[in-house]
C-alpha cells in the first residue's frame, strides 16, 4: 500500500486495542465503499497493491485494515487464546466497533478473503441492514479435513523453515499473528465449527469466488453458500489456488467491479478497466 497507515482505538476484550487502517481514494465521495478483510495470516501489507488496483478499476473508495493481532495492530496478549467463536467475535464486536471509531455510518461492500470472507458473511448475517453487498474469496463456512491438514503443514513450516522471517515483513509481532490463527484451527473442538445455518438472514447480493485448485477447501464451501443465500453468484476460477486476488487478480477485479456496478445503479457510470 502506498498510503501511510492510520490507527483507531477501540475497546475490546477489556482493553484498548489499536487498529491499523488505510483509506483509498476518499475523495470519491459518491462512490461505493469497499472494505477489505484479510485472510487468517493477512494484514494491510499482505494485500500489497491489490486494493488500490481494484478501487482504481471500479472508481471505488476503499478501506483496508489489519485485525487485532495482525499487521501493525495491537498484538494478542501473551495469555490470550482464541476460542471457537473467534470469527463471530470479529464480525459481531470488532468490526462494528472499528466502523464506529472511524465514523463509517454508510452501507459498505465487504471484500473478504478466507477467514475474512467468513467474517464478512457473519457480519452480513448479524447486521443485514448495514451492508450493501459481499464479495467473498475462498471463505470457510464449515471445517474440512483438507483445511486442517494444510494448516498442520503450515505449523510445521513455521517451526522448521524461515516462514517466520517471511511473515515478519507483514506483522509487527509475527508469533501473535501465526499462533492465534494456527492454534484455533487445529484445536479439536473447532472441527465442529459451522456457520451454514446463520447464512439465511443475509439479504444483500453476494459474489462468492474460489479457485478450483484451492488447497484449503473444496468448492462445497461456495456452492453451499448459494444453497442458503439464493442471491449468490458463484465464480469458480480455473488454474487458481486459495488466493484468487494473487493467483488470478484480473479475473477477481473484473468480476468484482462488474458485480458491484450491477448492484449499485445509483453510483454513476464508471467503466471496468481491463
UniProtKB/TrEMBL annotation:
Positions in coiled-coil regions? none
Instruction: Kindly give the Gene3D superfamilies that the UniProt entry links to this protein.
Output: alpha/beta hydrolase
Keywords of this protein's UniProt record, alphabetized? Hydrolase
Query: Ranges for the AB hydrolase-1 domain?
Result: 34-255
Please provide, alphabetically and separated by semicolons, the GO molecular function terms listed in this UniProt record.
hydrolase activity
- The highest taxon in the source lineage is Bacteria
* InterPro entries listed in its UniProt record: AB_hydrolase_1, AB_hydrolase_fold, AB_hydrolase_sf
PANTHER family in the record: HYDROLASE, PUTATIVE (AFU_ORTHOLOGUE AFUA_2G14860)-RELATED, MONOACYLGLYCEROL LIPASE
Return the protein name.
Alpha/beta hydrolase
